[in-house]
Amino acid sequence: MDNRVSAGSAANAFERARFTGTASEYFGIWIVNVLLTIVTLGIYSAWAKVRRNRYFYGNTVLLGRAFEYHATGKQILIGRLIVFAFVVVANILAAIHPLFSLVTTILVLIALPWLIVRGIRFNARVTSYRNVRFDFTGTAGGAFVSVMLGGLVAFLSLGLLAPLASRWLNRYVFNNLRYGNRPFDTDPKIGTLYRALLIPALMVVLGLVVLAGLVAIAVVGMQANDPGAFEHDAAVLMIVSGMYLVVFGLIIVYGLAGLIYRAAVHNIVWSSTRIDGQHLLRSDLSRARYAWIAISNVVVTMLTLGLMRPWAAVRLARYVAEHTAIRIEGEIGEVFTQFQTTGAAVGAEYMSMEGIDFGF
């Protein structure tokens, strides 16, 4: 695939990223990770995450250079042990008195925004590109509004306010992201996000209509054949089974619509993002292709009892990378020399910090 997105000089054209990993290479890493995680009763999973991320970061190439992942298994393990200890203590307290369960739930809700910030900041700071580290400067208050409140708004509105929540979330993440000391900024338009919701919303409505129609046809048919059908246990069992099938169908429809919406939002947000106010990002994922890859990955992974998981992960990573691009304003070498000069002090500071990852 041609890495050039648009015509123009090399310095001013969009250049696509590449993913150079292969399923066979990653399978070797993945199978060792799985086996050692099982043997160590889950302890090795922290180091497994490091090996996995280093492989995917190290094979994601942009402008001829790969990303790097600097976290250690120890950092991740400490975070997980803290979370595990909290869960154990919370369950013990809940067993002593139910009131403690309410208290621990409140504590989790209070701490969750802080944990979200810690997780994003940790992942940013252990990631580098061309020897310059990323950073995240968001606050817990911002995480509460954009992640927790935004998610609640989208849920309670049955998705009608999802574009608003998407805008809050992505503006919070990208506008607080730094490459060295150079800021990212994004401003996806709410109208564009709502246009992205049209197809998924139509899919959900049509899905509901079709499922409701099938249920109505089944009920009318049973009633016509036997007016007293609903008095039989077999009929009741069929109705219950039908309800489960309807719920399963709704999950499928919502899942597919969610993938379509996610790809569209990804394109809109990334294509609205700049680094240092001038270097543009772009994403041009095909919504249908993205959904097909995600769904077929799940199906193939399930049919092979997980053995094709490495293939699925590499397949998705390659597709997303090949449809992500950047346009550097100016001569690439000079621009990144400036980034490296201003980002060196920040990188040195991060190297001396012992961060903890609370994510899994």
TrEMBL record:
<feature type="transmembrane region" description="Helical">
    <location>
        <begin position="197"/>
        <end position="222"/>
    </location>
</feature>
<feature type="transmembrane region" description="Helical">
    <location>
        <begin position="290"/>
        <end position="308"/>
    </location>
</feature>
<dbReference type="Pfam" id="PF05987">
    <property type="entry name" value="DUF898"/>
</dbReference>
<keyword id="KW-1133">Transmembrane helix</keyword>
<keyword id="KW-0812">Transmembrane</keyword>
<feature type="transmembrane region" description="Helical">
    <location>
        <begin position="141"/>
        <end position="165"/>
    </location>
</feature>
<feature type="transmembrane region" description="Helical">
    <location>
        <begin position="77"/>
        <end position="96"/>
    </location>
</feature>
<feature type="transmembrane region" description="Helical">
    <location>
        <begin position="27"/>
        <end position="47"/>
    </location>
</feature>
<protein>
    <submittedName>
        <fullName>DUF898 domain-containing protein</fullName>
    </submittedName>
</protein>
<feature type="transmembrane region" description="Helical">
    <location>
        <begin position="102"/>
        <end position="120"/>
    </location>
</feature>
<dbReference type="InterPro" id="IPR010295">
    <property type="entry name" value="DUF898"/>
</dbReference>
<keyword id="KW-0472">Membrane</keyword>
<feature type="transmembrane region" description="Helical">
    <location>
        <begin position="234"/>
        <end position="261"/>
    </location>
</feature>
